[in-house]
């Protein structure tokens, strides 16, 4: 191939080739734009035809003797690649990573002597043997409103080697700003918690710019993820286990005081935990069995209960218990749950939101911060120590 009577250089490797462009023409890699007595050279890296470009490589466009007017990057899949012009419009660099196993075309427009010319480069990115994906974002139920204590919980499809690189691309944007931080719970789970409760009645947006992120060990992020979270009313329940009552409030207004019967305290297992809990889920009915015991073992039980709202991973629920109504409000006789009347259980079940706060006091057994969603048991300064970033 020849241009203006001279042979064009093939674009190889990472650097582009040099060619002279006639008006309206374009060539991958590098172009020289002639206008009067001045020339503008535009260089695009990676050059056209380059294969297996690392997804976290930087796309760079440089102009000498003139200025870049516009640079766009189009990919065959995934999110758009953004960039920034610097140095008096002499340089453009991408500001985010690329999707693995995709093809890209970079189009650069440069001005020379008042005329606009175009240079392009087409290349493909590496398709790694292993990729990292977010397999679950909690909360995730369609149309759900969550409580003001709700965390954001991410699950990954494989262990994350470079946690800092991944955490750096996780973004949480509430309508009503509040400080928050991520904490890693193992190598495949990370949790976001705010310093103070979310403001009620707002939208929180989560975004993970994960595509192309080098997660370590040759693993790259497969795709971006996003979620929208709707925070409902501020429903906070406080209860004194020794006093056998809990008070439910909504947006600061008292809704109801509910008598209950808590754990009998005969063993640690049968002692209701004190501390800040979050409502986790609910079911009607739920079958409860004694943890760590088999049929025939001392203390074994199996009980079907109605209107059950879970608040820990150690088997604690608020649920209907018609058999203990006589003790509710005066004595603790349960295996650790908060037993309430059928009418109160149905009412509490109906208003309960995942992430609602339940504060219990009165026993020597504190709920562990990693027992269910009891993340508020950790002071925020301690919580932040579990993140991967300074």
From TrEMBL:
<keyword id="KW-0573">Peptidoglycan synthesis</keyword>
<dbReference type="Pfam" id="PF17964">
    <property type="entry name" value="Big_10"/>
</dbReference>
<dbReference type="InterPro" id="IPR005490">
    <property type="entry name" value="LD_TPept_cat_dom"/>
</dbReference>
<protein>
    <submittedName>
        <fullName>Ig-like domain-containing protein</fullName>
    </submittedName>
</protein>
<comment type="pathway">
    <text>Cell wall biogenesis; peptidoglycan biosynthesis.</text>
</comment>
<keyword id="KW-0961">Cell wall biogenesis/degradation</keyword>
<dbReference type="Pfam" id="PF03734">
    <property type="entry name" value="YkuD"/>
</dbReference>
<dbReference type="InterPro" id="IPR038063">
    <property type="entry name" value="Transpep_catalytic_dom"/>
</dbReference>
<keyword id="KW-0133">Cell shape</keyword>
<dbReference type="InterPro" id="IPR041280">
    <property type="entry name" value="Big_10"/>
</dbReference>
<feature type="domain" description="L,D-TPase catalytic">
    <location>
        <begin position="235"/>
        <end position="361"/>
    </location>
</feature>
<feature type="active site" description="Proton donor/acceptor">
    <location>
        <position position="319"/>
    </location>
</feature>
<keyword id="KW-0808">Transferase</keyword>
<keyword id="KW-0012">Acyltransferase</keyword>
<feature type="active site" description="Nucleophile">
    <location>
        <position position="337"/>
    </location>
</feature>
<dbReference type="InterPro" id="IPR050979">
    <property type="entry name" value="LD-transpeptidase"/>
</dbReference>
């Amino acid at each position: 191939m020849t241009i203006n009577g001279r042979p064009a250089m093939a674009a190889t490797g990472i650097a582009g080739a040099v060619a002279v462009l006639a008006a309206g023409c374009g060539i991958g890699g590098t172009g020289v734009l002639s206008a009067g007595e001045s020339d503008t050279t535009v260089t695009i890296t990676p050059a056209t035809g380059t294969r297996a470009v690392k997804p976290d490589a930087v796309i760079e466009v440089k102009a000498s003797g003139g200025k870049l007017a516009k640079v766009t990057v189009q990919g065959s899949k995934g999110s758009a690649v953004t960039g920034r012009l610097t140095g008096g419009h002499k340089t453009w660099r991408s500001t985010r990573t690329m999707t693995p196993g995709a093809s890209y075309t970079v189009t650069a427009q440069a001005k020379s002597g008042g005329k606009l010319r175009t240079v392009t480069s087409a290349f493909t990115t590496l398709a790694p043997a292993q990729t990292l994906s977010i397999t679950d974002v909690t909360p995730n139920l369609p149309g759900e409103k969550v409580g003001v204590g709700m965390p954001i919980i991410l699950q990954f499809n494989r262990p994350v080697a470079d946690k800092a690189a991944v955490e750096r691309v996780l973004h949480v944007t509430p309508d009503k700003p509040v400080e928050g931080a991520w904490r890693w719970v193992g190598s495949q789970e990370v949790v976001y918690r705010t310093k103070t409760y979310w403001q009620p009645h707002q939208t929180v947006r989560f975004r993970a710019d994960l595509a192309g992120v080098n997660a370590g060990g040759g693993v790259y992020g497969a795709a971006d993820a996003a979620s929208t979270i709707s925070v409902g009313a501020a429903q906070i329940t406080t209860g004194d286990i020794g006093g056998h009552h809990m008070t439910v409030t909504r947006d600061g207004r008292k809704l109801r005081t509910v008598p209950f019967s808590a754990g009998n305290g005969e063993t640690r297992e049968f002692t209701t935990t004190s501390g800040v809990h979050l409502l986790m889920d609910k079911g009607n009915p739920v079958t409860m069995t004694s943890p760590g015991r088999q049929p025939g073992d001392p203390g074994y039980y199996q009980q079907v209960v109605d209107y059950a709202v879970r608040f820990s991973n150690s088997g604690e629920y608020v649920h209907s218990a018609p058999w203990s109504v006589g003790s509710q409000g005066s004595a603790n006789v349960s295996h650790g749950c908060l037993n309430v009347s059928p009418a109160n259980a149905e009412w509490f079940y109906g208003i309960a939101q995942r992430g609602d706060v339940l504060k219990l006091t009165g026993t020597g057994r504190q709920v562990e911060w990693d027992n269910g969603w009891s993340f508020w048991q950790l002071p925020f300064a301690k919580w932040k120590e579990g993140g991967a970033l300074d």
